[in-house]
Amino acid sequence: MAGVTAAAGNSADKLRLPYGLAIDSMNSIYIADRQNHRVQKWTFGASNGITVAGNSAGTSGNTLSSLKEPCEVILDQNNNLYVADTENHRVVLWLVNATAGTIVAGTGTAGALLDELNRPHGLALDSSTGTLYIADYNNNRVMKYLSGATSGTVVAGGNGKGLSSTQLSGPLGISLDSTTNSIIIAQNDAHNVVRSSIGASSWILIAGSTNGTSGNVSNLLCNPTYVKLDSMYNMYVGDRCNHRIVHIPYAQTTYTTIAGVTGTRGNSSVLLINPSVAIIDSQFNIYVADNDNQRIQKFNHYY
User: Fold this and answer.
1) How many CB atoms within 10 Å of residue 245?
2) Residue 12 — pLDDT band, cuts 50, 70, 90?
3) What b-and-e string marks burial along 183-216, b requiring 16 or more CB atoms within 10 Å of the CB?
């Protein structure tokens, strides 16, 4: 759907380690083109992308018109773009057709205070309130920013890095589950996915192990990067080091590989290398950021 297989570059038809993805109602894809320090928009069927945030030439920076290794993108109801500007330690909002962003979380300097972030990754937005949730990776916590706030509050983790149910270990991907008022968290360093109810002091396990064990069998994960929910609250996990996307039906704990081949890396149409994010369109087609293959792959609906 985007990029050139196994060919990294900064031209309009290429990507360099694409990471985060978002999709709008017209099935245009927004790509956090991580090491090109930009966000690319690809309309359906296009052979080239259009830069909608950052520098089109692929150069990094810390001004409001620049990005540095963005890892996640999400859209609000008006297609305004929130970007986790990871190596600038901030989240920026780019309005439609804007030439610069506005900082909505973080200060641009790494830190652990309530107004600071340290390598933010996953984002989730409560569209009804404008509340923003951020996976604050190096601080091992998930932050909650009310609309317009300059500081956040800790809603998960924040008790040092660890494997206990009151700690987080490398949170990367998050999704908001409005049916249970909880945050779903993919813990890269703990090799699991957990659910933390907003207001609770601990999490419960959804997938993977509680003791930090990784693996490629059906009940283990290896460095999961992101987790997404579809409209029926089924879950999709980027199981990065297993080179696959797994599907976990709502309210179940068993899961199935639906993209890639477990433990096998490659650049054919059925293989992936270190996939990060999987997003789902209204028809339940799956779009995968096939990170080290420098491309976005589409897999037809699973159901």
Assistant:
1) 29
2) very high
3) bbbbbbbbbbbbbbbbebeebeebbbbeeeebeb
